[in-house]
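Q: How do we represent a protein-ligand complex in a form that can be generated token by token?
A: Start from the inputs.
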Amino acid sequence: MPSQVSIEIDKRCSPTLTCLDVVTGNVRLDLSSTETITAIVVKLEGVAHTMLAVPKKKPTGSVKANESKRLMTETHKILYISQTVFPPENLQEHLTNRSEGLTLPPGRYFYPFEFRIPINNKCIETTGITNMLHFKSNLGLDISRKPTHHVHTTLPPSLSGMEEATIKYFLKATVKRASMFRMNSRQYHPVVFLPIEPPRPAPSGRQFFVRRQHQFRSVSQTVSTTVRRGLFGKMRGPSRTVSMTPGEEFIVEVTMPYPPILVPLEPIPLKIYVLKKDGSEPPKVFLRQMRVHLVCTTRVAAHEYHKEVVLGLPLLEARDLSVASKRSSRPADQLPPERAHEAEFDARKWAQAVIPDMVPPEFKTCNIERKYALEVTLGLSHLSNSNVDELPFLFDVHVWSGIPPPQSLVDEKSAGQGHLTEGTGTYMDTTAGMGDAVNAAAPPPADADPAAVPVDLPTYDEATGSHAAPVSGPRRTFGQSPNYYTNLEELDNEKS
Ligand SMILES: [Zn+2]
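Then emit the structure tokens for the protein with zinc ion bound:
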């Protein structure tokens, strides 16, 4: 068997790593023959890589519509920690000439390593060929340019399953040999990373809402059996008269606690109310169908090119419901007068709508940004078997990791900056689809504005995290697609 190098992470480390985790393990070296080794280096790296197909430009700069494409890529090394595990520290100072290395007889060797994962990314400009932008043309030329834009914020989560963007974390061990005729051996070990959450705002009791006003059109048919006489009399059957009668106007309201923060595998705290604008008793309404999609928007940048990739992830597709609106479970004396007669649908009917484990939390890094919205489509009718009208609701939500930060970190954060800023209350209505949006001048029953949810995530200062203990408690698996674990060499443009 030829000599081999492998990376073994200690079993007590969580399979899903997060900020402040201490990653320990060994580099295992199996030597089948005597080798002279100058160094064994272990690195913990994170790489955010984007790849966009862009039109080829003529030398004049003109672009034709059907022209062939070229791939433009941009790579940021968002995490880079290095540790030399061989020669051992106690021997390093005795070596007069490091390039000569140390000779090891055949056998199995273990060299321990230990890394503490930081909170924030650090895309420092490195020398050499890391942090470069590559243009790959069909001539096989790679022209490298340094990215000019960096974001300094919480380390982004692992990202896989997309063509245009990936974020991979891995350990890499390199065995450097003394002989220039012997190849250095390298081994990669992918790891899955899920960052800690930003500090959560204290519960405020405020509700976030999206509303639509709606009115059923009840259809009545009058069938006349009179047979007409005359030239065409035999050709005519009974006549039908169809009339449309407008029903009562009512408001449908989709609500969540404010700010709307969702976590994969946890229930979505969605409530649906029916009420009247004037506060009187609303008509009975049937929920017949319900569709919930998580709209995932990824903004991908590769130098001057940008692309927005939007994917709708189905969380619920219920087609055969027959859920009648019932009097609200909230005590009437705690409601404002205009909501005293509000009705609601039984929230247990959509309890199975849960964001799957593989969904990363929202994030922003140098060349990739991920955001979320929830699209809730309700199929409503005024009878349990009458025509179904579809009412769509679309609103921005936060998807967070589900890993709360250590309390000491939150305390330091809030001591330094006070509480998170909350949005001020203005009214929002839905903008597309069937049904009329409620008049924007109408007084809101709740005082939160989803648009006022802070756009940029609050981040922790690296210095405040330097003394924080690692995060304890269970973590979700955060499963990745198979391509997460392959082709790590291609991402790693460092040849040492
Ligand atoms: Zn960067």
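The first strand starts at residue 4 and ends at 9. Residues 407-417 form the longest helix (11 residues).
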